[in-house]
Amino acid sequence: MSGAHDGPPLTEPARRAVEAVWRIESARIVGALARYTGDFALAEDVAQEALAEALVTWSRDGAPASPVGWLLATARRRAIDAFRRRSARDERYALLAGQLAEGEASSGAVPARPGPDELPWDPDRIEDDVLALMFVACHPVLPPEARVALTLRTVGGLTSEEIARAFLVPVPTIQARITRAKKTIAAARVPFELPPPEQRPDRLGGVLSVLYVIFTEGSTATAGDDLLRPDLAYEAIRLARTLTALLPGEPEAHGLLALCELTAARFPARTGPDGEPVLLEDQDRRRWDTSAIRRGLAALDRATAAGRGLGPYGLQAAIAACHATAASVPETDWDRVVLLYEALGRIAPSPVVDLNRAVAVAMAHGPAAGLSIVDDLVAADRLPGSHLLPGVRGELLTRLGRTTEARAELELAARLCRNARERSVLLRKAAALG
Question: Which residues form the DUF6596 domain (predicted)?
Answer without folding.
Answer: 203-303
